[in-house]
Amino acid sequence: MERETVDFGELKHLIKGKVEFDHPIAPYTTYHLGGKAAAFVEPQTLQDLAELLRCLTHAGAPYLVLGGGSNVLFADGGFRGVVIRLGRGFQGLRIEGDRVWAKAGTKLVTVLTKAREAGLGGVEFFAGIPGTLGGAVVGNAGAKKAWIGPTVEELTIVTPHGQVKQLKKADYKYGYRNSSLKLSGNVLVEVALKLKKEPKAEIEKKVKEYFKIRRGKQPKTERNAGSVFKNPEGNFAGRLTESVGLKGFKVGGARVSEIHANFIINEGTATAHDVAAVMREIQKRVWAEYQIRLEPEVLPLGDWDWDDIKDVFWNLKGR
User: Fold this and answer.
1) Residue 255 a catalytic site member
2) Is there a catalytic annotation at residue 184?
3) % of the chain with per-residue pLDDT over 70
4) Catalytic pick from 85, 177, 223, 285?
């Protein structure tokens, strides 16, 4: 693929939404890390998005989709392709009975608020989680023993060739912090969630419980991307990290949180490479002590030198 042959300038004529070149991506991530993208596009309509994907695929131009910017580690060197972020036209929801039809760019807090008002339970674990519904569905977000996968009934995606497709529940496969949509090239634009009618008092009680858990055990005011590693079966990544003495461990401006050791903080001067270095040290020490290989939950995006990070993001080998 010869990226140099792609004229991103043509995107200005193709897209009605925002199109910027050599654009910083750090402000769009919760880590506030990473370099610039060759192009940053915010399509506002389904037609805009479909045409954009069709043209990029035809030109052999690399692209990636950024949701709320959590759970990602954007490369210091940026991205020589197009970063797509769904615009305001991809936000909003409607409720029909026990189903919530929500566009992918809708914030999780909005979905939770509207479901709660309608007396619909099943997404209380959204409380305190940043990001958008699209990112949550793609990554099968959750907390404790609850996650979004089981509530998904239907999905609307746009394929790399610009085709709009409706998927049924059986077409959506999910696992722990993963789904069949992840790294597929398809862009999720709308989701139907099947929830359940519950007394509002019960819903409110569960929401408060989730808020309480996150408020006391997770860093909120410092820049982070959420949980860095997946919890190994029968154990907890944070507990393992703490047990090998790495709370407060630093590389450059990246530090293991003293509040919860499965969070890495950007103190304000960190680079994405600093974060990767901290992750590497955690994995090394946990393996030496317990022979447990911690699997990253955070996804590296952008133009990383794969040889530099393949040991950290071993779970993405071949993808």
Assistant:
1) no
2) no
3) 97
4) 177
